[in-house]
Amino acid sequence: MNEKQRKATTLVNPSDKKSEKDYSKYFERIYMPPSLKDAKKRGKEEVKYHKDFEIPEQFKGMGNGRNFYIRTYGCQMNEHDTEVMAGIFMALGYEPTDRPEDANVILLNTCAIRENAENKVFGEIGHLKPLKMENPDLLLGVCGCMSQEESVVNKILKQYQYVDMIFGTHNIHRLPHILNEAYMSKEMVVEVWSKEGDVIENLPKVRKGNIKAWVNIMYGCDKFCTYCIVPYTRGKERSRRPEDIIQEVRHLAAQGYQEITLLGQNVNAYGKDFEDMEYGLGDLMDELRNIDIPRIRFTTSHPRDFDDRLIEVLAKRGNLVEHIHLPVQSGSSDILKIMARKYTREQYLELVRKIKEAIPDVALTTDIIVGFPNETEEQFEETLSLYREVEFDSAYTFIYSPREGTPAAKMKDNVPMEVKKERLQRLNNLVNEISAKKMKEYEGKIVEVLVEGESKNNPDILAGYTRKNKLVNFRGPKSAIGQLVKVKITKAKTWTLDGEMVEEAVEVN
Ligand code: 5AD
Ligand code: SF4
To answer: Which ranges carry the TRAM domain (predicted)?
Structure first.
C-alpha cells in the first residue's frame, strides 16, 4: 500500500473515531485498491457495531425508472450479500430485472475460491462488453471476493476499462455512494477496503423466496488455512451480537419462513471475539431452538472449534436438524499440518465419534481437496480410507487451486495435473458409491419434506428437502408448496429420492 492509498484508507475508515461521520473528504479520491498484505493483518481493534444504516436523503429516488441485475457466483455468503445489495437497490428506487439487456446497472458478485471461478467471471465481463458499448449509460460493476484481490483489480483496470465500479466485500453498505460516484465520474470507481473490522446492522434485504432464509451470524475468518484466500477477501472474524441475530430469526419466523441457515465462514468461532462475555455457537443455538421456526441449520463448520457444548445442544434436536457439514479437506495428518488445519486425522475422527454418539443418525457431509502440493499416493489413500470410515452422506470435492498471496501458492508442487484429476475421479467414485448406498436405506421410509416448489424438469412434480438435506421429488398438490409434508420414499437414486406424499400438508405455523 502506498502513502496515497494509506491516507485514503484512513480518511474513510468508519472504524476510525475521528472520521466516523466525516465523509466529506472521501470524494477527493475514487481509487482505493485492495492490498493483500494489509488484508492479512489482524489487529487488536475492537469490532464496532453500526446500527444506524440508512439510505442518505440525497440518494433516495436515484433508481427511479432504472433496473438492476445481479449475477452471483460462489457460496451462500455471496448469495446473501446479493440479497442485501438487492435490498439497497430497491430502497434507492431501482427495480429488479432478470435480463441483463434490460438493466441500467449490472453487478457481478464474484467468488475467488478457485481459479476456474475467477475465469468464469472474466469471461462474463468480456461477454457484457457489447451491452456496455451499445448502452453507455449502463453501469457495470464487479464486487464480491475477487474485488478484494490486488491482481484482479489491476487486471480489470488494464484489460476491462469499460467496467465502471469495483467494490469489495466490506463496502456493500456504501453502494449508494459508489453508484452516485459512478454516475458522476468518467473514471472507474474502485472502493475496496482491505481490512475492515466492523459489523453493519439494519441493512435492507430482499430475500430470494419466502420459505428458507439465510442469516449471517459472523463475518470473516482468522484460520488462514494455507490454501485459502477467504481470510484475505473477507477480513477478520467478527460476530454479530446474539440479540441482533435472535431478533432477525424471530422476525423471519413471524413472516412465515420455515427454515433458517446461519452463515459464517467458520461458524464455530462464533463469539470468540466478544470481550464482554463467554458466549459461543452452542449458546446461540440453544436460544434459537426456542424460536417457533421448524428448521435451523448452520454452515460452515471448522472441526477445530467444534466444541462439546455445541454437540450437547444439537443433540436436543427439535428444530436443530441432524445434518452437519464438517469440512475435513484431507485424511492425512501430514497434509492437514501443511494446510494449517490445526487438527489431525485422529482428532477429526474423535470429533466424528463424539457427534455420532450424541446424534446416532446424524448426516455428515464434507469438503475435500485433492492434489494439494506434493500429496503422495499414500496420503491420498488416507483421504479415501477416512471417507470410508466416516461414511459421509456426500462431499464437495475439489482439485487444489493455487491462490496468489496464500502460503500454499509458493510451495513447489510435484503432483502432475493428470494425477490430480485421476485422484479426484477415484474420490468421486467413492463419494457416489457411499451416497448411493446411504440413499438406498431410505426406500420404504417416510421422511419430512419442506416443499420448495415444482421440480426443475417437471412442473407436475414437487421438490423439497428433508432435515438431512436430501432432495425429494414427489407428486403432490401445489398447495403443499411452503409446507412440511410427509413423503414415503419409493425409489432412491444416487443423489435424490423419489416418493409419494402420504398425507395432506400439515399447517406448521
Ligand atoms: N483450492 C481448492 N479448493 C479450495 N477450497 C478452498 N480453497 C481452495 C483452493 N485454493 C475448498 C475447501 C473449502 C471449500 C469452500 O473450497 O474445500 O472448504
Ligand atoms: Fe478458508 Fe475455511 Fe480455512 Fe477459513 S477455515 S481459511 S474459510 S478453508
So the answer is: 440-503
Are 223 and 137 found together in one domain? Answer: no
Which pLDDT tens digit goes with each residue over 388-407?
999 999 999 999 999 999 99
pLDDT tens-digit map of 100-141? 999 999 999 999 999 999 999 999 999 999 999 999 889 999
Report whether residue 224 contacts ligand 2, using a CB cutoff of 6 Å: yes
For residue 222, the domain's CATH number is 3.80.30.20
Total structural domains in the chain? Answer: 3
Query: For ligand 1, atom 18, which residue shows the shortest CA distance?
Result: 367
Same-domain pairing of 468 and 434: no
Is there a contact between 78 and 145 (Cβ–Cβ < 8 Å)? yes
Nearest CA to ligand 1 atom 16: 113
Determine whether the annotation assigns residue 221 to a binding site.
Answer: yes
What are the DSSP E strand ranges found in 145-201? 165-167, 189-191, 199-200
Residue nearest to atom 5 of ligand 2 (CA): 223
Q: Is 83 left (phi over 0), alpha (psi -120 to 50) or beta?
A: alpha
